[in-house]
Design a protein that fits this description.
Elements: H1 4-23, H2 32-44, H3 50-53, E1 60-64, H4 72-78, E2 83-88, H5 91-104, E3 109-113, H6 116-119, E4 129-135, H7 140-147, E5 151-161, H8 166-171, H9 173-178, E6 181-190, E7 197-205, H10 219-222
Helix pairs in contact: 1-2, 1-4, 1-5
The protein binds S-adenosyl-L-homocysteine.
The site of S-adenosyl-L-homocysteine has 18 residues, from strand 2 and helix 6.
Length: 226
């Protein structure tokens, strides 16, 4: 059960998101119910992970490819003590999320517009985050190359995935080795009714990362590590 204040904030988030979604195409979810189940509850699945429930004032969380603000905003509302950052390469999406953040007065969110491949080489961001979250961005081999540069050694990468990841997991073996990412947990969860079963794949960054990574803009997707 969600705490009453949090529940209220999350419903307000849905209203504001749907309003923004009529102006821009942020997501296919256009009804309140779809947005609640498919975006909000799906984002909150991460609350079931033990290490995340220990997030405190020193914890920094980066959501790569945040789009319309998921999982960024539900997590920022759930962990108000932690610092949350949302990165997306599309300025109009970042602007929409910023308007939601302003309307709700969410104090612990910073938005960044840029490519993961570029910010991952910037010393202000490289190796600076305890936790990186990724939903709906790319296949595992590509997204680990986007994500690993941002994570502190010992930090975590949480990936939102469907139940069908067998092939993706196989195809990510080289990427995991090259990028020092070790699969720690496959956490299954269920959403109401038609939304069904999904999973969070959690990786731990085991060590430092070679200066080769990330490769140039576009390369992690065009020529994924295989
Ligand atoms: N996380 C959101 C949006 C997923 S769509 C959700 O689950 O609803 C993927 C988003 O990633 C898009 O908004 C796109 O603009 C952004 N994106 C794609 N490649 C990127 C890159 N290399 N760096 C930063 N953002 C990227």
């Amino acid at each position: 059960m969600l705490d009453e204040t949090l529940d209220k904030s999350l419903h307000r988030l849905v209203d504001l998101f749907l309003e923004e979604n009529t102006k821009l195409n942020l997501s296919a979810f256009r009804s309140e119910e779809d947005c609640w189940n498919g975006n909000v509850l799906d984002s909150l699945a991460a609350l079931e992970l033990d290490f995340l429930s220990q997030a405190n004032a020193g914890t920094s969380v980066l959501d790569i490819g945040t789009g319309g603000g998921f999982p960024l905003l539900p997590l920022a509302l759930s962990f108000p003590a932690a610092r949350h950052f949302g990165l997306d390469s599309t300025q109009k999406k970042i602007d929409a999320v910023q308007r939601i953040v302003n309307a709700m007065n969410i104090p612990n969110v910073t938005l960044l517009c840029g490519r993961a491949e570029e910010l991952g080489r910037d010393s202000q961001h490289r190796g600076q985050y305890d936790i990186v979250t990724v939903r709906g961005l790319a296949a595992l081999n590509t997204l680990l190359e986007y994500a690993s540069p941002f994570v502190k050694p010992g930090g975590y990468i949480i990936c939102w995935k469907s139940m069908k990841t067998e092939q993706e997991l196989k195809d990510s073996l080289l990427a995991r080795a090259e990028l020092s990412c070790q699969l720690k947990t496959q956490h299954r969860y269920s959403l109401p009714e038609k939304w069904g079963e999904r999973q969070l794949l959690v990786f731990v960054k085991r060590g430092p990362l070679s200066a080769k990574y990330p490769r140039a803009v576009g390369m992690p997707k065009k020529k994924p590590l295989l």
